[in-house]
Write a structure and sequence with these properties.
Layout (H helix, E strand, L loop, with lengths): L2 H32 L5 E5 L6 H17 L3 E5 L6 H9 L5 E6 H5 L1 H4 L11 E11 L1 E5 L7 H11 L4 E4 L5 H13 L4 E4 L3 H9 L5 E4 L1 H9 L3 E6 L25 E9 L4 H16 L1 H9 L3 E2 L4 H22 L5
Parallel strand pairs: 1-2, 1-3, 6-7, 6-8
Antiparallel strand pairs: 3-10, 4-10, 4-11, 5-8, 5-9
Length: about 325
């Protein structure tokens, strides 16, 4: 066959393919722009008035304006947020998303192999919303003049000291186990039903240390009921600006934060995920929303889906190592 004729046929074929693909691409974009076609269900695995619930409701109104459809917050409470997580993972209506905390998206299956969803495969990441360090706290009368001397006292006390958390497998529990591994301290874990009971035990002298969310810790520190030792982030946090990071206090390889994020079921089309990610990240980065989240105890982020996916993987790696090393399980 003549080379010129062959080249003409190839060019003609390419033109035909391009003509076929162009309408598909345009149709795909038009479908994404037309979505959502009905109200969006925004599932939260925690009760009304909880931190995840407040965050979801703060996002709902501006998200309604951005998408042109109502956004209905639905509380599916229980199992530390995992009932809500399962509802998001199993949703097939194409109009369901979820506001979830870091534990549900990272270590839930490692803690409980019988969990009905798999955080690694059952979700499409959309956007990281807010992050916050934990605050290492102690009774107001705790020994030591700073974080280093306090940790020296904790090492000397060995298992005579106890620390509290709001339950086995919570970030407060795993964070303390990570601190033990990094510092050589050895306080005994005492689980409680929730943070209020942990706080009461600290004030009453039944516990010598704990890790609390900054919003809760700062209230009690300012009231003189607890003493702040340091924060678990990579540096000082605007949520607790007067406290050093534990890294600054000499605790190596220790960077732990709590966070929340929006995800969708893994089967949601990529174009819809992209539209949600763009809308939500823009909302979260707006000054008024940053301030609102800050008042709730969060530093606003508003990441891409890839940014959230990377955070999920990194935290699963760090906390997973603690779970495996300590043999921690939640029945």
């Amino acid at each position: 066959m003549h080379p010129t004729f062959t080249r003409r046929r190839l060019l003609a074929g390419a033109a035909v393919c391009a003509g076929l693909l162009a309408p598909l691409t345009t149709s795909h974009a038009q479908t994404a722009a037309a979505w959502p076609g009905k109200p969006l269900r925004f599932i939260v695995g925690f009760p009304a008035g909880s931190s995840p619930d407040l965050t979801a409701r703060a996002l709902a109104e501006p998200l309604e304006k951005a998408l042109g459809q109502p956004v209905v917050v639905e509380n599916r409470v229980g199992a530390g947020g995992n009932i809500g997580g399962d509802a998001v993972a199993k949703a097939t209506d194409g109009h369901t998303i979820g506001l979830m905390i870091n534990g549900n998206l990272t270590i839930a299956r490692l803690l409980n192999p019988a969990l009905r969803y798999d955080p690694a495969t059952d979700f499409a990441p959309i956007s990281l919303i807010g992050v916050a360090p934990l605050v290492l706290v102690a009774p107001a009368s705790a020994p030591g003049s700073d974080a280093r001397s306090f940790l020296d006292a904790a090492r000397a006390a060995g298992s005579k000291w106890s620390y509290g958390s709001p339950g086995v497998g919570t970030v407060g529990h795993l964070g303390m186990e990570l601190l033990k591994a990094r510092t050589g301290i050895a306080p005994v874990h005492v689980p409680y039903p929730g943070y209020p009971q942990v706080f009461n035990a600290l004030v009453g002298g039944d516990l010598q240390l704990s890790m609390l969310p900054p919003a809760l810790a700062q209230t009690q520190i300012k009231a003189g009921k607890l003493r702040g030792i340091g924060v678990t982030g990579s540096g000082r946090s605007p949520l607790a600006p007067e406290l050093p990071s534990l890294l600054d206090a000499g605790v190596k390889q220790f960077n732990l934060e709590i966070w929340n994020a929006v995800v969708a079921p893994a089967g949601m089309p990529r174009a819809h995920v992209a539209r949600l990610a763009e809308a939500i990240s823009t909302i979260v980065r707006a000054p008024e929303m940053r301030q609102r989240l800050f008042q709730q105890g969060w530093q606003a982020v508003g990441s891409s889906p890839e940014g959230l996916a990377n955070r999920i993987q990194a935290d699963t790696r760090v906390l997973g190592q603690i779970i495996r090393t300590q043999g921690i399980r939640v029945d």
